[in-house]
């Protein structure tokens, strides 16, 4: 059965966001270097990059918060301008830094942000109640933000950004510094908004989140695109295979035997490199389906007793590291 999200994708071929040859300079520094971004209606689109890569600059240009030096930005086929209020009504923003009023209650905060887009009291009341129910803050509606936990505060931040039912929602690291339960609830909420038809542009420093919810992922660095595709497509771009760690205590005191084992493993077609680290063989393999079996079979043939064995296939963080030279979490 087709979901609302599937129907939206099929029915509307125009881009939700179309960025072409975008250039932004700060003096002599080139922040955006002829950057293209193409977000399809109804998808969850991940925009990733190290600090200083140009993500925030690109988003601010899309939202009309920054002027730019060249290129074109269109949202739902229209140019974003400071006075294009009809287009702004179709957009929601959930910033990384919680942006609510401490003097107002949960309900008052959500109502205030809704009032920026919706004038009618009856409709606004309905939307506010729906947003409160959506983020499950009903029992906290009379609380002021200072009384909320970090996770609940993030949910309030989301409610304020989505209360007017936007078609396009920008989520900028919405799960920073929240507990696992709140994090899962937030991700489920984003997926539900997407199923209801919202297009989502999502940034995060948590690779597992990106793999979990994003249809396509664009990695940028130094203001230009490094890679674009699904998580699996991006993994295939990087020539990374299985990494196997094998405890081999009998080789610790026998250097000649250790060298013979390492050379033998190194000659296997599936093995790229073999290292020794304090009683453990670290084997890096070529991409393949039977790497662990082949390595263990070789050790069995060599009569090498093995202890603990662990195997790790390439992660999306490995992909990011290979493409940009830095780990996203450590920026």
TrEMBL record:
Residues annotated as domain ABC transporter: 17-247
Domain of life: Bacteria
Keywords (A to Z) from UniProt: ATP-binding, Hydrolase, Nucleotide-binding, Transport
EC id: 3.6.3.25
Pfam families: ABC_tran, DrrA1-3_C
Enzyme class of the recorded protein, top EC level: hydrolase
An example molecular function term from Gene Ontology annotations: ATP hydrolysis activity
PANTHER family attached to this UniProt entry: LINEARMYCIN RESISTANCE ATP-BINDING PROTEIN LNRL
Protein name: ABC transporter ATP-binding protein
Lineage summary: Bacteria, Bacillati, Actinomycetota, Actinomycetes, Bifidobacteriales
């Amino acid at each position: 059965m087709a979901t609302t999200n599937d129907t939206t994708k099929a029915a509307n071929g125009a881009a939700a966001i179309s960025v072409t040859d975008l250039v932004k300079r700060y003096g002599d520094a080139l922040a955006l270097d002829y950057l293209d971004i193409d977000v399809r209606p109804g998808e969850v689109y991940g925009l990733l990059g190290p600090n200083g890569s140009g993500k925030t600059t690109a988003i601010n240009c899309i939202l009309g918060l920054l002027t730019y030096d060249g290129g074109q930005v269109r949202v739902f086929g229209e140019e974003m301008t400071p006075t294009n209020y009809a287009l702004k009504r179709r957009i929601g923003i959930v910033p990384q830094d919680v942006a609510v009023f401490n003097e107002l209650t949960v309900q008052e905060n959500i109502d205030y942000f809704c009032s920026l887009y919706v004038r009618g009291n009856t409709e606004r009341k309905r939307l506010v109640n729906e947003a409160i129910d959506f983020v499950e803050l009903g029992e906290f509606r009379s609380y002021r933000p200072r009384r909320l936990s970090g996770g609940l505060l993030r949910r309030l931040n989301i409610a304020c950004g989505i209360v007017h039912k936007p078609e396009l929602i920008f989520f900028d690291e919405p799960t920073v510094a929240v507990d696992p339960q709140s994090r899962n609830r937030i991700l489920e909420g984003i997926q539900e908004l997407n199923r209801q038809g919202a297009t989502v542009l999502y940034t995060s420093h948590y690779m597992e989140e990106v793999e979990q919810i994003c249809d396509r992922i664009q990695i940028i660095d130094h203001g230009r695109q490094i890679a674009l595709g699904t998580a699996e497509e991006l993994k295939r771009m990087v020539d990374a295979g299985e990494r196997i760690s094998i405890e081999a205590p009998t080789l610790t005191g026998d250097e000649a035997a250790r060298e013979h084992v390492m050379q033998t493993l190194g000659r296997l077609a599936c093995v790229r490199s073999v290292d020794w680290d304090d009683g453990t063989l670290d084997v890096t393999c070529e991409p393949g389906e039977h790497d662990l079996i082949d390595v263990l079979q070789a050790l069995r043939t060599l009569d090498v007793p093995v202890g603990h064995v662990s195997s790790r296939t390439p992660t999306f963080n490995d992909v990011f590291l290979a493409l940009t030279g830095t780990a996203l979490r450590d920026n």
